[in-house]
Amino acid sequence: MLLLDPSKKISFNRCIRDGDLVIVYERHDTMKAVKVFENSVLQNRFGVFKHSDWIGKPFGSKVFSNKGGFVYLLAPTPELWTLVLSHRTQILYIADISFVIMYSEIVPGCLVLESGTGSGSLTASLARAVAPTGHVYTFDFHEQRAASAREDFERTGINTLVTVGVRDIQGEGFPDEFFGLADSVFLDLPQPWLAIPSAGKMLKQDGILCSFSPCIEQVQRSCETLRSNFTDIRTFEILLRTYEIREWKMDCSKVDDGGSVACPPCKRRQPSGEGSMRDNSSSPAVMARPSAEARGHTGYLTFARLKCIL
């Protein structure tokens, strides 16, 4: 496993072993999680890769196939795991996850309650945030989904930091054993307002609750419920815009007549001469444009702090 006991510290500062999970990177939009076995092979468009060649190499290594093609073997960090995991439900992505961890004030040693587990995208990042001495207790009402998440956490080596439970938090609330112990509670539920009273009982004084909702109507009703026992209620929408930065060859010999691209204006006088015109007929230029695959709205994040009882 990638988790080093007994300190429970997540670390990838060692070589790949038989049985490890690695992220095989082909290109920025093509990655997959692969478990390493001594006698197994990986076949893709670049050729056949023997797992036995991977064992003993450090994470981040470049490995070659029988055809000379190559891939990179990356560590299964929470960021990369979010990009390759099986989508059993809608997941949170990196922008939302990082904001949740920061605004919920989650640090090493925290005890965090989560419902529902879903695909486990957020859970993996929460586990790293609370390591080495904290713990994440995550609940999902769907038994098979919880079992699949438990298997994923074992594969990624964070199972000693995460406990998965099967429970309908909306109907039953959180288990009484966590009464007053949680530093933070995260809710990703269709009707979060039903679980807010229970979440408030689980939080420590001055603890923080975060609720993720895809619809603003859910946010409005949740905020109405929060006002009774919580303060500093805030809602955010995280919009992430990704840009592609590429170098293009611009043909300066063509005139911008509506269909072709001309050279950008230049303030410096160019030297005259036939050779100069020939050298500048095609020049590189850096172009930036928004990515066509960029994700926009994912949902709303509502944060609230439990009122202190004096």
UniProtKB/TrEMBL annotation:
It is found in: Nucleus. GO terms for cellular component: nucleus; tRNA (m1A) methyltransferase complex. InterPro entries: SAM-dependent_MTases_sf, TRM61_C, tRNA_MeTrfase_Gcd14. Keywords: Methyltransferase, Nucleus, S-adenosyl-L-methionine, Transferase, tRNA processing. It holds the Pfam family GCD14. Belongs to the class I-like SAM-binding methyltransferase superfamily. TRM61 family. GO terms for biological process: tRNA methylation. Residues 263-289 are annotated as: Disordered. This is tRNA (adenine(58)-N(1))-methyltransferase. GO terms for molecular function: tRNA (adenine(58)-N1)-methyltransferase activity. Residues 69-305 form the tRNA (adenine(58)-N(1))-methyltransferase catalytic subunit TRM61 C-terminal domain. S-adenosyl-L-methionine binds at residues 119-122, 140, 168, 188. PANTHER family: TRNA (ADENINE(58)-N(1))-METHYLTRANSFERASE (PTHR12133), TRNA (ADENINE(58)-N(1))-METHYLTRANSFERASE CATALYTIC SUBUNIT TRMT61A (PTHR12133:SF2). Its EC number is 2.1.1.220. The keyword Repeat does not apply. It catalyses: adenosine(58) in tRNA + S-adenosyl-L-methionine = N(1)-methyladenosine(58) in tRNA + S-adenosyl-L-homocysteine + H(+). Its main location: nucleus. It is an enzyme of class 2 (transferase).
